[in-house]
Design goal:
Layout lengths: L7 E5 L2 E4 H18 L1 H11 L3 H13 L8 H4 L3 H7 L15 H11 L1 H4 L5 H15 L19 H23 L18 H12 L18 H7 L1 H10 L12 H4 L21 E5 L6 H14 L5 E6 L2 H18 L6 E3 L8 H12 L9 H9 L2 H4 L5 E5 H5 L9 H9 L1 E5 L7 H17 L2 E6 L4 H11 L12 E5 L4 E5 L9 E10 L6 H12 L3 E5 L3 H14 L4 E4 L5 H15 L8 E5 L13 E5 L3 H8 L17 E7 L15 H6 L3 H13 L2 E4 L1 H10 L10 H24 L12 H6 L6 E9 L2 E4 L14 H6 L2 E3 L3 H6 L7 E5 L1 E2 L4 E5 L2 E6 L3 E6 L1
Parallel strand pairs: 3-8, 4-6, 4-7, 5-6, 7-8, 11-16, 12-14, 12-15, 13-14, 15-16, 18-21
Antiparallel strand pairs: 1-2, 3-9, 9-10, 11-17, 18-19, 18-20, 22-23, 23-24, 24-25
Helix pairs in contact: 1-3, 1-10, 1-11, 1-12, 2-3, 3-9, 6-8, 8-10, 10-17, 10-20, 16-17, 21-22, 21-30, 23-24
């Protein structure tokens, strides 16, 4: 028996699996995935500059080498009986096996022994080989960088010599099996740094290759020892079945384009340009009015990339959980037109269950005890899959929030590269790109650079973007072309080195929309009782009225007042619900306000959650003052569809609630003008300019206003009538924004290590104080229960973290909330509530909190 077959790679209970065989299990998964994915072949060949055969050889060599660090007595002693059989020496019982991490230590051995493995190979090429190995050695979560030697203490020299020879033997065998047939030597390592997708690809292959449902252990005797080549060939069928069972192979059956996806629909507006775009790796920016079909256009172009084998999947990212939920049904309707099966369309927030193989893997490792503990690949895979936020990136169509996409570029985050692999093999579509601040843009630009490096494409959607933002995004892609096109609507396609502009030749199929503007001005930026009565009257006459507040407390207060005044339904939708309830609320909103909803008057009071991606329609809209681009987004829910309207609301009308600033002295502190609204929207100059334009116009004409108004509001130069104090305040704001962007860029390269927990999307991808995570519970005999009666799992239960997330809600990190909430435990605030006739109640000094599934968490005074 060859020495390397004495080492175990997987073990459970009394049986074990030889380490070389496990390496080939993982290699078999990689090989069949490579064979069945033209996109993956293209990605690795593109980045290495090699023909596919040679790129394949290098990838296979390193993937098979990923567990090199298990050829070490400290790992082998995790199963003492097997170690004692392997080594002909007395082994000390305390070698620190629990703290031996074979990925990190394997990298150290690789660096330390490079002269042995790669004799006569130049040091420069040895360094490059070490960089490539680091990517696969990081398959348990973090790419190793520390090469400081860490020799096993108190063992006989014969043990360390045996381990070194085993490592050397494996490298020689893999060189013979993979590199030599491709005519490659170690001197031919093609790039200093490995392909950006290698670490994630290796990790997922390791997860599947460690799944005993598809790769049963094979114990061997010297008489039936199989050569590695024969064993490798024998496991390829298992690998193909695993890839298919987990839904990781894309079976595209479309030629792509608008006609293929929407055969019964005549393309309109920006959609008519899609088939003119070249089918190649690109950054696409689509600017078109709300409701013009940008989503369908993006999916049509993505399907062309898929049909041309330039991607395997689609990742669709949106600003919030609510917008992601709303998008899922639209994507499911076209999934079967793109792929042979739509079983692996996954929403990254738990609405859609994973497939049965995902579930079985999770359940198996929930109960299993393994000598490697949490470091065992199957256990790490199960932990990953137990979160829908993460497993979405292993689907054919993933619907997620932009935060989850941004985590793929935060390198200190554990397993960030699995997300980046999922995105890199996909067409990445990001909607509502205007909705992000400078901090988020810093990370998004890193995502775009990473996607370009990986050979992937990006599609960005917005009603409109200021020219400077488009310029910044194109620079992140790697092109310095000047972006100053004024036409609207518009598609911009940045390829490898150039930018192409596509615009409509005629406006025949663009529906002009004129919105009447009404201003409600008060000193405190509020809605009066008389105005509330107008709202009730409109709804009772049959109008669908939408009120968009900037603050949750305002939304709850006005919904309560209107509910007491009106005889018709008053609905509310905001962010302060448990996530599991918020999904039901969202469905109610869509049922009552989409284009198919009953023609009867209602009032919806909401916050920013209704301004993005929700296909709802109002006859009359009232909005509190906000930046012009977001106000236009809100107006996109006004007369969104062609339908019969109540007589008094045949024309779209938007009423804007704003402060009366006619007699306000701006020389003191302009921030005081907008109060808490300025806390939500910190760019005071943009609020002031928005208000100025609204005061100067009785109507807004679309689509012209998208380009004209937004460019004027975001113009870098000072307006003629702009108070100097406001200009100075804006300069301070821009300095802060610049700093924020560089802070976030630094985060993508930081050395600090972050665990990949459910809460890190907010804490790492959003600047400033994050919301506090509150979990409403009831308590009985010292045991906590969710409001639906299920027991609350422990926070350290890695398989039930999502259950905690589903039952949590966010409140502002303010002195008020910190003063009334109980002490936090593990970053969570468990709010013990009592069931009453009104809902679940929590009393504090001077007031109470009430939670209902209809109204969410609201404050009350005693």
């Amino acid at each position: 028996m060859k020495e390397i077959f004495k080492y175990w790679g997987k073990a459970e209970e009394s049986i074990w699996h030889p380490l070389p065989y496990h390496c080939m299990d993982v290699a078999a998964v990689a090989d069949k995935w490579w064979e069945n994915s033209p996109s993956i072949r293209h990605r690795f060949s593109h980045e290495t500059g090699l023909f596919e055969e040679q790129a394949h050889a290098w990838v296979m060599f390193f993937v098979a080498l990923h567990d090199l660090g298990k050829f070490d007595v400290r790992f082998q002693m995790k199963v003492l009986d097997l170690a004692e059989t392997n080594y002909n020496a007395n082994l000390p019982k305390n070698l620190g096996t629990k703290n031996y991490f074979h990925g990190d230590e394997g990298y150290k051995w690789f660096v330390l022994e490079s002269d042995i493995y790669f004799e006569n190979v130049a040091y420069r090429q040895q360094d490059w080989l070490q960089n490539w190995f680091a990517a696969v050695a990081g398959h348990h979560g973090s790419i190793p960088t520390n090469a400081e030697p860490n020799f096993p203490p108190f063992v006989d020299e014969s043990v360390t010599v045996q381990d070194c020879l085993a490592r050397q033997m494996l490298i020689q065998e893999l060189n013979r099996i993979f590199l030599e047939p491709a005519g490659i030597s170690f001197d031919n390592i093609p790039t200093e740094n490995p392909p950006v997708l290698l670490a994630g690809f290796c990790s997922v292959c390791d997860w599947l290759g460690s799944n005993r449902e598809h790769f049963e252990f094979q114990q061997i005797e010297s008489s039936n020892e199989a050569s590695l080549e024969d064993y490798f060939s024998s496991r390829k069928e298992n690998a193909l079945k695993a890839l298919n069972d987990f839904g990781l192979l894309a079976h595209v059956h479309t030629i792509g384009g608008m006609q293929a996806l929407y055969p019964d629909y005549t393309p309109q507006n920006i959609q008519t340009l899609i088939d003119r775009l070249s089918v190649e790796q690109s950054l696409i920016i689509v600017e078109a009015s709300t409701g013009s079909g940008k989503t369908e256009a993006a999916l049509a172009y993505a399907s062309r990339l898929l049909a041309d084998s330039l991607a395997d999947s689609i990742v669709f990212a949106l600003p919030t959980q609510a917008t992601a939920n709303a998008m899922l049904d639209r994507l499911e309707n076209v999934a079967y037109k793109i792929f042979e099966s739509n079983d692996n369309v996954i929403l990254a927030h738990g609405k859609r269950d994973s497939n049965e193989h995902f579930k079985r893997m999770i359940e198996r490792h929930r109960q299993s005890i393994n000598p490697q503990g949490d470091l065992e690949a199957g256990a790490q895979c199960s932990e990953w899959l137990s979160s829908s936020r993460k497993r979405a990136f292993l689907g054919q169509i993933a619907v997620t929030t932009v935060d989850q996409v941004m985590l793929s570029a935060i390198r200190p985050l554990k397993h960030y590269f699995v997300r980046s692999f999922g995105i890199g093999k996909s067409v990445l579509i990001i909607d509502e790109i205007h909705a992000y601040d400078a901090y988020m843009y810093g990370i998004l630009e890193a995502v775009i650079k990473q996607q370009k490096q990986a050979g992937g494409s990006v599609i960005l959607l917005s009603a409109t973007l200021p020219a400077y933002q488009k310029q910044s995004l194109c620079s992140a892609w790697g092109t310095d072309a000047v972006i100053d096109e004024k036409e609207y609507p518009l598609i911009l396609q940045a390829t490898d080195s150039d930018v192409h502009i596509f615009k409509l030749e005629t406006r025949n199929n663009i529906q002009d929309k004129i919105v009447e503007i009404e201003l409600w001005k008060t000193d405190d930026c509020s809605i009066s009782n008389e105005q509330l009565e107008q709202i009730v009257k409109a709804a009772e006459e049959g109008a669908k009225v939408g009120i968009v507040c900037n603050l949750v407390d305002d939304a709850q207060r006005y919904a309560h007042l209107l509910g007491e005044m009106a005889s018709i339904p008053v609905d509310i939708f905001h962010s302060r619900y448990r996530y599991c309830d918020r999904m039901n609320k969202e469905k109610t909103v869509l049922d009552n306000y989409d284009k198919k909803s009953p023609d009867q008057g209602r009032i919806l009071v909401g916050t920013q959650v209704i301004e993005q991606s929700l296909d709802i329609d109002f006859d009359w809209m009232i909005s509190f003052i906000c930046p012009i681009d977001l106000l236009f987004q809100r107006m996109g829910r006004l007369h969104r569809h062609l339908k019969q309207r109540p007589d008094s609301y045949n024309k779209p009308r938007c009423t804007v609630v704003m402060p009366n600033i006619a007699d306000v002295d701006l020389t003191d502190n302009p921030k005081k003008i907008y109060g808490l609204h300025n806390f939500v929207y910190k760019n005071t100059r943009v609020l002031w300019r928005t208000q100025c334009l609204l005061e100067q116009n009785n109507t807004i004409q679309f689509p012209e206003a998208y380009r004209d108004w937004i460019e004027r509001v975001y113009d870098k130069s000072r307006w003629e009538n702009e108070p100097e104090s406001l200009t100075k305040l804006h300069e301070e704001y821009e300095t802060e924004e610049w700093a924020s962007k560089w802070i976030s860029k630094g985060l993508t390269q930081a050395d600090t290590f972050f665990m990949d927990s459910e809460g890190n999307a907010n804490s790492l991808t959003r600047e400033g104080k994050m919301n506090l995570s509150v979990i409403p519970v009831t308590e009985e005999a010292g045991v906590r229960y969710f409001l639906d009666g299920l027991p609350v799992p422990k926070p350290d239960d890695k398989f039930d973290r999502e259950l905690l997330s589903q039952n949590s809600l966010g409140v502002p990190d303010s002195n008020f909330w910190r003063s009334i909430l109980p002490e936090n435990r593990d970053g969570l605030y468990y709010l013990a509530m009592t069931k009453t006739d009104e809902g679940w109640r929590f009393d504090y000094d001077g007031g109470y909190l009430l939670y209902t599934q209809d109204r969410g968490l609201q404050k009350g005074k005693i």
